[in-house]
Amino acid sequence: MTIRSPLAPDRFPDLPAIPGVTLRIARAQYKAWDRCDLTYIELATGTTVAGVFTQSLCPSSEVELGREQVKGGTARALIVNAGNSNAFTGFRGRDAVEGIQHQVADHLSCAAAQVFVSSTGVIGVPLPMDKARAGVAAALTAAPATWEEAAATITTTDTFAKGASASAMIGGTRVNVAGVVKGSGMIAPDMATMRGYIFTDAAVHPALLQAMLIQASGGTFNAITVDSDTSTSDTVLLFATGAAGHPVLTDWDSPGADALYAAVHAVALELAQLVVRDGEGAAKFITICVTGAVSDASAKRIALSIANSPLVKTAIAGEDANWGRVVMAVGKAGEPADRDRLSIRFGDTQVAKDGLPVDGYDEAPVAAHLKTQDIRIGADLGLGDGRATVWTCDLTHGYISINADYRS
Amino acid sequence: MTIRSPLAPDRFPDLPAIPGVTLRIARAQYKAWDRCDLTYIELATGTTVAGVFTQSLCPSSEVELGREQVKGGTARALIVNAGNSNAFTGFRGRDAVEGIQHQVADHLSCAAAQVFVSSTGVIGVPLPMDKARAGVAAALTAAPATWEEAAATITTTDTFAKGASASAMIGGTRVNVAGVVKGSGMIAPDMATMRGYIFTDAAVHPALLQAMLIQASGGTFNAITVDSDTSTSDTVLLFATGAAGHPVLTDWDSPGADALYAAVHAVALELAQLVVRDGEGAAKFITICVTGAVSDASAKRIALSIANSPLVKTAIAGEDANWGRVVMAVGKAGEPADRDRLSIRFGDTQVAKDGLPVDGYDEAPVAAHLKTQDIRIGADLGLGDGRATVWTCDLTHGYISINADYRS
What we know:
homodimer; seven-stranded mixed sheet
C-alpha cells in the first residue's frame, strides 16, 4: 500500500469472530505484486444473503450474476479477487466467474448460485482463469485468516485496511455484526471500486435482510462521494449465518429486528465513512448537512451537489471560507431553492443568512475550523423539513497525481 | 492576466466594426488592480436583444433583471462590471444594478429597462455603488475602444481575451456578427463565470432573435463544460442593431434568416470553444462525440457525463489511454446503454467494440494521439440515431493550484 491516508484511524479495530464465517486468503497474483489478493469466505449452511449493487448501466458480470444470486436468498461462500475487475470483458468475463463458482461449489457440495464472486481492479482485461483456478485451490485449503488480513487482501489502491463491528441483543441472545470494505468511490488508477461485506451470526429471513441492507445503505454507502464517478462494480453484501441460534427474524416486527438493524446501520456507516477517509488525495473529511429542503430526497440531491462540486472541494483543500461556492452548488442542483431564504454555516459559524452575508461576519472562527481535519458545512434552504447528511473529502493535488500522473 | 493558456490562439482575431455598436471602457477599480474593468457598449436606437441565462436557482440580481428585460425585446446599452459578481447580495445588489441602469438611461434618454447590466467576480459582496457610479460616468464619455480592449476589460481570471466573428448575406446585404466572451465555466478563484456578448448589424425581430440564440446555444455554450460547476450568473446576450438596413427578419422563413443563423451559430461555437481553451489549468482540448444513443438528448447527457468525469479528465491529462473510465462514465449517466453494444474510440482508433477490447488492439496510435493537444473521444451506444458533441478540457494540477492553493 502507498502512504497511509492522513485521515486513517490509528489501527484496525478488534472485530469479533462471527460464528459460521471462516476467512481464508491466498496469492492468485492477478498483478505483478507479492501479496495475498484472493479472499475466500466460507459461510455455514443456512446463511442468508442480501445485496445492493451499482446503478451503473454498464456493470460487470459479477454484478449481473450477483443481482440474480441474491434473489435465491442463501449463500455458502464469497470469493473476492483484487487486482482485476473483470468488467467490460464480455462472455470471457462471465466464463471466468462461472468457473470460480463451480470450483468452490464442488468443494462445498453446494449450488453454484450460492457462491458469490467479486472482482476489483483493472477494467477490460478478462480475469486470467489459470491464476484464478490456482488461487482458489490454494484458498480453499488455507489456514483461517484474521479480519485484518482479509480486509487487507480485498484492497487495491486503498492506503489502509478497513473494518467495523457492532452488536445487538435479540431476545436474550447477543449477536455480532462485522464488516470489511475496500475502495473510496471510483478512485483508483485502474478503476478500483467500493466493495463492502458485512457478516452477522443473527438468523434473518432473506427478505428482511435485504430490506435492512437497502434501508441501511441509503444514509451510509449511498451518502458518500469522493469524485462523483460511479463504478461499474460497486457491491455491498450482507450475510447472516444464523449461528447465534435465536428464532429467525422474519419481519421488522420480530423482537430484536430493530436492534439488529441499528447494528447493521452502525457498521455500514462506519465502513462508508472509512471509505471517504481513504479518498484519493484526501486531507479533509467533510460532513455536509442540508436542512429545510422541500423533502429528504431533495435535501440529499442538494447535499450531493455540494459534495461533488470541484470548486467546493478545492476551496476546502485550500482552507478557504469561500461560501459563495456552496451557494453556487445549491443553485445548480436543480432542486427547489430560494436564494433569499438560503443560509450557510461553516462549522458552528453562520456565514450567510436569508440570502445575505451575516452582518458583522467574523471569519476568524471559520478559518480556525477550516484548519482542522473534520469540516462541517451546513446549508438551510428555509423551505420545509427535508434533511440529509452526506460525507465527502477534499480535492487536492494528491488526487491529480494519483489519477493523471499515473500511466497504465 | 496570468500565464496565457497553452491552448490559446496566437492572437486576438480581427473583428469587423458593427454599425450601431460603440465600445467604451473605464476603470471602476472594483478590485485592487490597475486595469480597465468596466465596459460600456452603446447600441443604436432600434437595437433588438435576445438572452439566455444560467439555470441556477440562486441567480444574481443581474440575471433576474436581465430575464425580464429580454422580454421587452429592445436594448440601448450594455454595462459589464468585472471583479465583483454582485451575486447573493440581496436587495443591496439589486439597488446597485438599478442605480447603474438609471445613470445610463438618463444619459441616453432611454428606458432603464433598455440598459443591460452584467457583473462578474467575487460573490457575496454588494457592488460598491460609489465605484460603479464614477466608473460609469467615465465610461459614458470615454473615447471608443477596440474589440480587443473590450474583450480584455470583461475578463477576470481569464488568461486571454476572446472574440470571434462571421458574416452572412441577407438578400444583397452583407451583415456581420461579432462577439466577445469571458470565463471558462465556473472556474475562477472567486466564482468567475461565463458571459458572452454577440452583436450584429442585421435587423431582426426580437422573437426571432431569441429563437436563434436559444437554438444556437444548445450545441455551443450549453455543450461545453470545464468542471461541471454551474455559475450563478452565466449570461449570453445577442444584440441586433439593424444598421445594415435590409428588411427586418421576422421569422425563420425570412430570406437570409438561415444565413444569419449560421453566422450566429459559428460565432457562438467559436466563442464557446475559446472558453474551454481557457479552462483553468487546461492543457488538452477534448472533443467528445457520442453516437448511436436512443435520442440526441440522451447522447448529450452521456457526452456530458464523460466530459465531467474527473477520472476521464485526469486520464487525458496523464495521456493515459484508460478507456475503461469512458465505459464507467457512460454507465453512470443514467441513460439507456447496453454494455455489450458499446464501442469506444480514441482519435481514429477503435479501442473497444461491442463490449470487448478490440482484438489485437495496438495502443501505439492511441498513445500518439493522446500526446497531442486536441483529443477526440468517441462513444457509440449501438442503440439508435441519437448523437451529440460536447467540448471540455483536462483536469490538471493547474486546476487544483488555482482553486485550492488560492486564499481569498
